[in-house]
């Protein structure tokens, strides 16, 4: 069963009766995907979940990714339940340009805790480009904004905070906490990264990371293809009823009562982990930048602006993008194929489980 079974079981039990669980925190990380741009959050305005559900612009979900649609469904499911009815939503922020995408929102709980939830990557190619930039740059625009946001929330509410996020939001949860001043770091009770990318080697070995890592819960599904990116440690592996990249959807994660079901990392995830490590070892920072700029430049030349533009006709888009390239070697083309595979969250299981040999054959370009 997934987190909806937890919701059904504990919907009438308040946070005073049953303290916050790891499943609750996942729920808040999923609600962070809600696009709330049409709601006025100036002057720290606060809204109940029912008010958010009534005010939200539902038309924007027609072109949204799975995570955004799942967030709306989740909101509609929990908004009237006693466990969630006293939660207040506040300080929503969102901004995106051609190079970055950042979103965050906070939840004030009746037990006096504050949940800071960072949004994962949305339907914009710029958001996915910034994910790739994590391989050679620190801090990214979103990571800087994550630190500013956490500092502001701690200053405003002067309460203990739990920081969380799914996908890129998990990386922002960790980095946002790392970038706090030493005194503000003490306000952070726990950090939850749900299948979020890790850190470059320099940051992984930094004092700021060492100061926060004991508070970090690094949760990934057993066939993770995102949470194994870059440097990670102490991975807490959980069961999913999906395969490959579809495990990235938190609705596939298996729950027993108020906890995730634990398991071991699969061979698929281990192999991807090794492949990413090998790629990082093969290219220095400048070469990574050139490859990523080339990849996303090709997407722009192919008039691909949203992830759904890839998903709608996946293989055709891949071939068009790669045919446009005159400068990429075969190894880099395979890297790009894998990158684009991660971009799409609506692929069929056949494409998801395609072997590397088949991928190479699919993208082969005649000289």
Summary of the model, kept short:
With 367 residues, the chain is an alpha/beta fold. Helix content is 45%, strand content 14%.
Helix content: 40-55%
Give the distance, in angstroms, between the N- and C-terminal Cα atoms.
51 Å
Average residue-wise pLDDT: 83
Give me the number of helical elements: 18
Spatial strand arrangement across the major sheet: 1-2-3-4-5-6-7-8
Shape: globular
Structural class: alpha/beta
**From the alpha-carbon coordinates, what is the Rg to the nearest angstrom?**
20 Å
Largest sheet: 8 strands, mixed
Beta strand count: 10
Strand content: 5-15%
Low-confidence stretches: 342-359
Order of helices and strands: HHEHHHEEEHHEHHEHHEEEEHHHHHHH
């Amino acid at each position: 069963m997934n987190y909806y079974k937890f919701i059904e079981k504990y919907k009438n039990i308040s946070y005073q009766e049953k303290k916050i669980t790891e499943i609750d925190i996942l729920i808040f990380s999923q609600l962070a995907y809600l696009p709330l741009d049409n709601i006025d959050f100036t002057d720290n305005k606060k809204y109940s979940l029912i008010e958010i559900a009534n005010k939200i612009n539902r038309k924007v979900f027609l072109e949204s990714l799975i995570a955004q649609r799942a967030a709306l469904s989740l909101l509609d499911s929990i908004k009237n339940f006693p466990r969630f009815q006293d939660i207040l939503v506040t300080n929503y922020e969102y901004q995106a340009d051609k190079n970055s995408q950042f979103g965050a929102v906070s939840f004030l709980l009746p037990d006096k805790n504050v949940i800071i939830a960072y949004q994962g990557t949305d339907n914009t190619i710029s958001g996915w480009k910034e994910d790739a930039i994590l391989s050679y740059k620190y801090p990214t625009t979103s990571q800087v904004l994550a630190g500013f946001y956490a500092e502001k929330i701690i200053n405003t509410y002067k309460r203990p905070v739990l920081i969380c996020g799914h996908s890129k939001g998990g990386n922002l949860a960790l980095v946002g906490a790392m970038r706090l001043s030493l005194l503000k770091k003490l306000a952070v009770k726990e950090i939850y990264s749900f299948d979020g990318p890790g850190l470059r080697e320099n940051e992984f070995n930094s004092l700021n990371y060492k100061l926060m890592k004991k508070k970090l819960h690094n949760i990934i599904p057993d066939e993770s293809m995102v949470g194994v990116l870059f440097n990670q440690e102490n991975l807490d592996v959980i069961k999913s009823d999906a395969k490959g990249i579809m495990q990235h959807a938190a609705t596939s994660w298996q729950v027993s009562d108020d906890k995730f079901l634990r398991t071991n990392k699969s061979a698929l995830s281990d192999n991807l982990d090794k492949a990413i490590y090998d790629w990082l070892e093969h290219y220095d920072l400048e070469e990574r930048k050139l490859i990523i700029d080339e990849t996303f430049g090709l997407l722009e030349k192919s008039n691909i602006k949203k992830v759904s533009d890839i998903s709608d006709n996946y293989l055709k888009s891949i071939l068009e993008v790669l045919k446009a390239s005159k400068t990429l070697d075969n190894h880099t083309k395979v890297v790009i194929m894998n990158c684009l595979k991660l971009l799409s969250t609506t692929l069929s299981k056949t494409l998801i489980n395609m072997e590397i040999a088949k991928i190479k054959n699919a993208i082969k370009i005649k000289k």
